[in-house]
Amino acid sequence: MCRKLPFPTRTNLFYISPSTALKLIYVPTSLAAGQLISLPEDVQHRLYRVMRMGQGTMIHVFNGQGLAAVAEIADAKCRTAACQSLLPAKPPLPPRPLALGVPKRDAWEAALRQATEMGVTDIIPLKTRFSQIGKLNTERDHRHLIEAAEQSERYTLPTLHPLRTLEDYLATLSTQTLWAYERLETAAPLGTTPTAVLVGPEGGFAPEEVAVLKSHPHIQPFSLGPTILRSDTAVVAALAKL
To answer: What separation in angstroms does the CA of 59 have from each of 56, 72, 87?
Structure first.
């Protein structure tokens, strides 16, 4: 017969130092030592119903803007948490934009998660000739960014920009950008150190788009190898080049 364990409380928890690995939870609010914060309903449900946490459980919280804190759940149903102390700040991530021709939904969501884990600071969805999605579900996409940030323990969320056409993106591009070109035969040496990555949708860019990209002064094509990669796999391989 299985005995149901009680929720953890202050009396049955060992002391947990701020440096101990705790579950990292996103809370869209300001953070300060001694502050009592209200947890969003979806977070309440996850902590109380899914993770079986309760009053006295220690967690880490972050606000997506670089601040994180050690917090103690303050009530039995995980509605509020009390910030005990701020965690040491992490070094800011260097600017690292990713422009991606939007692929099918599963590849798009995988790319969001992987880009977040790999430290991308800006995600720019592009509408191209072969893009698979005409309209983005920004609320759903934001949840994927949060989940990936919690998993990878980064304290900031990447900025998800509105959907843009490739033409609009290239018209304002001023950063040296690596373009993952799957049909590249020879590549010119890099003129300056690139800080951004461009990846096409499933099927790549159309011939007329390729011609424009090849002539752009801030676009540097490079190869990801002899095989053709899925869009989300190409995102990881391209970011690794940085």
So the answer is: 10, 6, 12
In a domain? residue 24: yes
Q: Which residue has the tokens 């021709």?
A: 101
DSSP 53-102: --TT-EEEEE-SBS-EEEEEE-STTS-EEEEEEEPPPPPPPPP-EEEEE-
Would you say how long the chain is, in residues? 242
**Single pTM value for the model:** 0.86
Cβ contact 31:83 at 8 Å: yes
Tens-place pLDDT, residues 198-232: 999 998 999 999 999 999 999 999 888 888 899 99
Given 60, 86, 112, the domain boundary residue is 86
**Is a pLDDT exceeding 90 seen at residue 133?**
no
| Alpha carbon distance 167, 123 (integer Å) | 17
Residue 103 buriedness (CB in 10 A; 0-12 / 13-18 / 19+): buried
CATH number at residue 151: 3.40.1280.10
- Domain span at residue 135 reads 97-240
CB burial of 9-22 (b: ≥16 within 10 Å; e: otherwise) equals eeeeeeeeeeeeeb
Longest dimension (CA), the chain: 72
Cα 226 from chain centre:
28
Closest CA to 99 of 123, 70, 77: 123
**Chain segment 232-241, per-residue pLDDT in tens:** 999 999 999 8
Query: Do 113 and 53 belong to one domain?
Result: no
Q: Does residue 47 sit within a domain? A: yes
